[in-house]
Write a structure and sequence with these properties.
With 328 residues, this protein is an all-alpha fold. Helix content is 66%, strand content 0%. The protein contains 17 helices and no strands. It has helices at 6-15, 41-55, 59-66, 77-89, 93-106, 111-123, 127-139, 156-171, 175-188, 193-205, 209-222, 227-239, 243-256, 261-273, 282-296, 301-313, 318-321.
Length: 328
């Protein structure tokens, strides 16, 4: 556990970085007010177990282990760091934000946590504010304990800050600045997946669709299960009238991620409406459209649009949409 720095709390509040409901945790007057190390053993053990769960990609289980301890150990920075890691792994940025801000109140020099704050702001679509936080992070002194990349020996905090700055400028429409920051991230860590994907987005928006396609293909060579990358690759290929390749990517994505609504609906739409009539397949379209509505839900407008389009192109009578009973 770490005692809160009252001066740091006041500074962060004055800058608008610590606007939490209710009073900020009170700073400890001296080390004697900190908890007995023996009393903290359950927290230490839980944190160690949570780290193992996070390493096994089980963030929900890690959160379930940590959250009950927060009431008795609110001053534990390690506990809050792991809560941040768990929530961000689940894209629960609103839940992560209070822990991020309190970690920064405890240690305002924690550059990795400032990157987390920048990420939270980007998720709230506060792109200019997020970019400002990330740029300030890059100007802060580096902590010698920060992990570094393999070849360039650049801090991974710097790499992640550059990637997130690329995202911030991409969403602000400043494609040249986005390309600059993604490029720096790749210079520091060649093959960084998010930076490669970001550059592919920039390429596509700047009309360099062939370059974008090749970048996404390179990502899938080392990370074939990235569904979002494969969906975007299929859309780019389809837009370039490379219909067969697009369908191949979506079919491969569905094989790797069965039941994914986007892959199902992309395939159904393409098989129903493709300008190349040789690609169309009425029977498969109907099956996929029905499955898409079932997976996405009756209220999903895209699924209903696909089903309606199939109805205009092919027979979608109730009999054709009801699967035959499986033999017992």
């Amino acid at each position: 556990p770490v005692a809160l720095d009252a001066k740091a709390v006041a500074t962060l509040q004055s800058l608008g970085y610590l606007n939490l409901p209710g009073p900020a945790p009170a700073p400890a007057a001296d080390s004697r007010q900190r908890q007995d190390p023996k009393a903290m053993m359950p927290v230490y053990r839980a944190c160690r177990q949570a780290e193992e769960l996070l390493a096994r990609n089980q963030p929900r289980e890690a959160l379930g282990l940590l959250q009950p301890l927060l009431a008795t150990s609110p001053e534990s920075k390690k506990l809050r760091e792991l809560l941040v890691a768990g929530h961000t792994a689940l894209n629960e940025f609103a839940e992560a934000e209070p822990h991020v801000r309190i970690c920064l109140a405890i240690d305002p020099t924690d550059r990795a946590m400032w990157v987390n704050l920048g990420t939270v702001l980007l998720e709230k679509r506060q792109f200019a504010e997020g970019a400002d936080v990330l740029a300030k992070t890059l100007r802060m002194p580096r902590n010698p304990r920060e992990p570094v990349t393999g070849q360039s020996r650049v801090s991974r905090v710097d790499v992640e800050a550059q990637v997130k700055l690329g995202i911030a400028f991409l969403y602000q429409g400043n494609l040249d600045r986005a390309r600059e920051h993604y490029g720096l991230a790749l210079q520091y860590e060649p093959g960084h997946v998010m930076a490669c994907e970001g550059l592919a987005h920039v390429d596509a928006l700047q009309g360099k669709r062939s370059e974008a396609i090749e970048r996404l293909r390179e990502i899938l060579k080392t990370a074939p299960d990235m569904a979002g990358v494969r969906k975007n690759l299929g859309r780019l290929l389809y837009g370039e009238k490379r219909y067969g390749e697009a369908l191949q990517e979506w079919r491969e994505g569905l094989r790797r991620k069965p039941g994914d609504a986007d892959f199902i609906l992309n395939l159904a739409w393409a098989l129903a409406t493709c300008p190349d009539e040789a690609v169309r397949n009425g029977r498969e379209t109907i099956t996929l459209a029905a499955e898409g509505v079932k997976v996405a839900g009756d209220g999903n407008f895209r699924a209903l649009d696909v089903l309606a389009e199939c109805g205009m192109e092919f027979d979608t009578s109730p009999d054709s949409l009801t699967p035959s009973p499986s033999p017992i």
